[in-house]
UniProtKB/TrEMBL annotation:
This is histidine kinase. It catalyses: ATP + protein L-histidine = ADP + protein N-phospho-L-histidine. SUPFAM superfamilies: ATPase domain of HSP90 chaperone/DNA topoisomerase II/histidine kinase, GAF domain-like, Homodimeric domain of signal transducing histidine kinase. SMART domains: GAF (SM00065), HATPase_c (SM00387). CDD domains: HATPase (cd00075), HisKA (cd00082). Keywords: Phosphoprotein. It comes from Zobellia uliginosa. It comes from the Bacteria. It holds the Pfam family GAF. It is an enzyme of class 2 (transferase).
Length: 400
């Protein structure tokens, strides 16, 4: 018997095998189905998904044989992995110098014929084989059977790669969950620790204005105090916006059916601006299935932005709905001052603002809307109102 050679890339091969986290796992239907099919196509009583470890070959699936592993020195598969691109075929093991006195040949399971297709990773590391075994010598292993065995080996690798990707994705998701929790905790602490002195500053500015107003006349100090108060208001609004953004991005998406017109009317009602908003809804008497919480957040931000930046006593808002096979489409427009086209990309970037004069304009609102829409797999874009009049015009698309 000739022992199998150790591949030159053994260290990296073993690391590749470990990356699948497959050794010593329970049987799985996906792999058992492949060995069953392989045995059937190749007309053999046995078929294995064999993974070659440092000192053994372990069977993820074993059709027609009870054993779950054998020593590596005895393994036919340990020879097969030395040629990652080639099918390894032994037609008559009893007449082969490498195997004629191998205990797997002379005793149970009585291997006489062996054909193994290496399981090779994208990086070129052969971690095992999909093999078929017969207790009789054979010289009639057809080209069709060889091609089928290779194709099925590719399916085994596809299952293994999918497994590795799922494990990697789960690990990434867990790490992101931890980091998000840490970020959320940090933001809460930061907001709490900074809001208190901000409130103190705002109160102090108010006291100075009230108690020392007679000393501030005809000086620039009053203007400076207004600037301080303005900046304090901006920071306080920013904290609220950041906390809202983090909460939204950490929330799970829950999908449900809801009525568009009912929900938008409820948003306006809860905003407390029913007397200053002239709302026009077109084709919104429809039920859709999406994230209701996200829908409310999107349109609440849009409506409050329209009111916040309006230069009119009554803010006109028009929302039009349509749908197609793949998604829901909304257009949103108002009669406000609008946004110059050169700023259309800028307004969706966090903390980008068109003016620092308004303490409510933190540059978080539209960035939050875009983040929600993209989290749902949708899109939002700015455009010109069809009637060419001043005002914003958003095209929003959400997937079904």
């Amino acid at each position: 018997m000739i022992k199998p050679e150790i591949p030159l890339n053994e260290e990296y091969r073993l690391k590749a095998l470990e990356s699948f986290h497959i050794l010593n796992t329970l049987e799985e239907e996906e792999y058992d189905a492949i060995t069953h099919i392989a045995a059937d196509i190749c007309n053999t009583p046995m078929a294995l998904v064999s993974l070659v470890d440092s000192n053994r070959q372990w069977f993820k699936s074993h059709y027609g044989i009870d054993a779950t592993e054998t020593p590596r020195d005895l393994a036919f598969c340990a020879h097969a992995i030395n040629a990652p691109e080639d099918l390894f075929v032994v037609e008559d093991a009893s007449q082969d110098d490498r195997f004629h006195d191998n205990p797997l040949v002379t005793g149970g399971p009585g291997v006489q014929f062996y054909a193994g297709a290496p399981l090779t990773t994208k990086e070129g590391h052969s971690i095992g084989t999909l093999c078929v075994i017969d207790t009789k010598a054979r010289n009639n292993f057809t080209d069709r059977q060889k091609a089928s065995l290779k194709a099925l080996a590719n399916q085994v690798m596809a299952q293994l790669e999918l497994r590795r990707q799922n494990i990697l994705q789960k690990r990434i998701n867990n790490e992101l969950s931890v980091k998000n929790a840490q970020l959320k905790h940090f933001t809460y602490r930061l907001a709490h620790d900074l809001k208190t002195p901000l409130l103190d500053i705002s109160a102090l500015v108010g006291f100075i204005k009230e108690d020392y107003s007679h000393l501030l006349k005809n000086t620039e100090i009053a203007e400076w105090l207004d600037t301080i108060d303005n900046r304090v208001g901006y920071m306080d609004t920013s904290f609220h916006g950041i906390m809202n953004y983090i909460n939204i991005m950490n929330d799970e998406i829950e999908v449900q059916g809801f009525h568009i017109e009912t929900e938008i009317n409820e948003i306006v009602k809860k905003s407390g601006r029913t007397t200053t908003i002239d709302l026009k809804l077109e084709n919104c008497d429809h039920e859709i299935v999406q994230s209701l919480k996200s829908f409310v957040q999107i349109f609440f931000e849009l409506i409050m932005n329209s009111v916040k930046f309006s230069d009119r006593s009554v803010t006109e808002i028009q929302i039009v709905f349509s749908k197609d096979n793949d998604g829901y489409n909304f257009t949103y427009q108002d009669n406000g001052p609008g946004i110059p086209e050169k700023y259309w990309d800028k307004v969706f970037v966090m903390f980008e603002t068109l003016s620092f004069e308004n303490t409510m304009d933190t540059g978080i609102g539209l960035a939050t809307i875009k983040a929600i829409v993209e989290k749902l797999g949708g899109t939002i874009e700015l455009g010109h109102r069809p009637d060419k009049r001043p005002g914003v015009y958003f095209c929003l698309r959400l997937p079904k």
